[in-house]
């Protein structure tokens, strides 16, 4: 499991996949989400704009990513 730290308050799923290095481009992220290849919290997610607020588990191509909010305080 790979922990991916983001700044508050959220990140969109499409951006998260690119930021995590799971895909190379935003267009690729859009396609894999629409094709039903991405799971968020063990459910297939077809919403590229789904907001991740921290604590979500994203699965794609056998990799598992945990979204963690990074507070700089």
Question: How would you describe this protein?
Answer:
- By secondary structure, the protein is α+β, with helices and mostly antiparallel strands.
- Helices cover 22% and strands 34% of the residues.
- The protein has 2 helices and 7 strands, in the order ββααβββββ.
- The strands form 2 sheets. It has a 5-stranded mixed sheet, with no helix packed on it. A two-stranded antiparallel sheet has the order 2-5.
- Strand 6 (57-60) and strand 7 form a beta hairpin.
- Helix 1 crosses helix 2 (26-34).
- The longest helix has 9 residues, at 26-34.
- The radius of gyration is 11 Å and the shape is globular.
- The model has no long low-confidence stretch (mean pLDDT 95).
Describe the main β-sheet briefly: 5 strands, mixed
Oligomer: single chain
Summed over residues and divided by their number, the pLDDT gives a mean of: 95
Approximate shape: globular
> How would you spell out the order of helices and strands?
EEHHEEEEE
Note the total helix count.
2
Structural class: alpha+beta
Unreliable segments (pLDDT under 50, ≥5 consecutive)? none
- Strand proportion, as a percent range, falls in 25-35%
Distance between the termini: 25 Å
Roughly how many Å is the radius of gyration?
11 Å
- Residue share in helices? 10-25%
| Order of adjacent strands in the largest pleated sheet | 1-7-6-3-4
